[in-house]
Amino acid sequence: MFNLFRENTKIALGSIKAQMLRTILTVFIIGLGVWALVGVLAAVAVLESSIMGNFAVMGTNTFTITRYDTSGQIGRQNDADVRENPIVTYPQAKAFQEKYSFPGAKTSLSFTAASGVEVKYGEKESDPEVTVLGADENFLPNSGLETTQGRNFTNFDISNNNYVCLVGADFEKGILKDVNPIGQTIAIRGAKFKVIGVLKGRGSTFGNRQDLNLIIPIQLARSLYSAPNIDYTVKVSIANPDFLDGAVGEAILSMRRIRKLTPVAKENFGIERSDELLETLKSETDTLAAAAWVIGIITVFGSSIALMNIMLVSVTERTREIGVRKSLGAKKGTIAMQFFTETLVICIFGGIIGLMLGLLTGFALSAIMNASFPMPWVATFAALGTIVIVTIVSGLYPAVKAAALDPVEALRYE
User: Fold this and answer.
1) 304 pLDDT exceeds 50?
2) Do 290 and 221 reside in the same domain of the chain?
3) What is the domain extent for residue 313?
4) Which of 80, 90, 197, 291 is most buried (most C-beta within 10 Å)?
5) Same domain, 160 and 219
6) Is residue 196 domain-resident?
7) Residue 93: C-alpha distances to residues 100, 101, 109, 299, 320 (Å)
8) Tens of pLDDT, residues 4-56
């Protein structure tokens, strides 16, 4: 059996070499189908890893009070029914922090002080894309952030308006490259800050370069960046995730009292729970994965039809060859296996090329998004399954047709 397969493989390679242009086109068709399947699935895996990773670091024991509940808008096409909520002002956010007393809760306040800022270190200047955040000492743990060097803010830093800051990971690749960032002095619009910590890299999400963020004490940020209608964000972490429902319920009641809402009025603020947000994102990425499978299956189906047509043409062109082999004693199974092996060799070549292109697509996307590249094992095994399916679907009928040819009629064929 092995000798027969080896002989058929030699014949298949000889036939492929004799019809190089047709073989290249056929391999391209198969490779395109596998590329579409593996590439899209790998891209979805990278996207899911990037998005889910950024939100999962918050854990399942946090919630955020904002002007709007943006988690409810994921996947929504029509925003016409979104109500215009008033901003969360600093007095409201501060009142919530002081009055909210759920056991084991830690509350942090933050706001975006400035965007598109240029930071200077000596003669060096950063990209004018830095986002300056004002935050307190609880912002980092409540947001799932951590420092790789230095330390977080302390209550002393916040209450005394110390000119200190935390910088994102990209600063080590930019203006603070080749120096120890801790203790260095940087300038932001003329104000000088001492770097006390470097944040762990988080990559980019939807073009938002989170590693270019710079955080300063919230009270200092309020005095330096005064602007009308500043919208504040309140983040709350609960020590025991089992009590999250009760904590959210009490937070809603507290915020309703602070916003002076009547008992029958709807909430004019949003609460985003980390666990619900993760579930929503997971649902959206699952939808993308399902769409990727549909696209891949359609493409592979088209590739199978194209390959079958090409193999049928090959059977027709080699009718005399089949007649000669049968007249010399070749059995139907031998003839069928010859063409089936030829289809398998072509599919393997196309599958390998498509798999490599698909993995490169995922790797390129991860590099663009500055995210990790999870090995798409599902996509890889899907590619292997695709090769088997395409070989069976595309090679079986032409092989059977070739084996069924009458040797006498085949010899007469011109």
Assistant:
1) yes
2) no
3) 2-54+280-412
4) 197
5) yes
6) yes
7) 10, 14, 7, 53, 86
8) 667 767 776 777 677 777 778 778 877 887 887 788 778 777 777 766 555 55
Number of domains in the chain: 2
The structure tokens 């070739």 sit at 402
pLDDT tens for residues 308-322?
777 777 777 777 777
Q: How many CB atoms lie within 10 A of CB 28?
A: 17
Whole-angstrom Cα Rg for the chain: 32
pLDDT of 92-148, one tens digit each?
999 999 999 899 899 999 999 998 899 999 889 988 889 999 999 999 998 888 899
Residue 257 lies in a domain: no
207 near 50, Cβ under 8 Å?
no
Run of H or E including 118: none
Token readout for 195 is: 């770097």
For residue 176, how far is the Cα from the chain centroid?
A: 29
DSSP classification of residue 376: -
Q: pTM of the full predicted structure?
A: 0.62
What CA–CA distance (Å, rounded) separates 136 from 199?
15
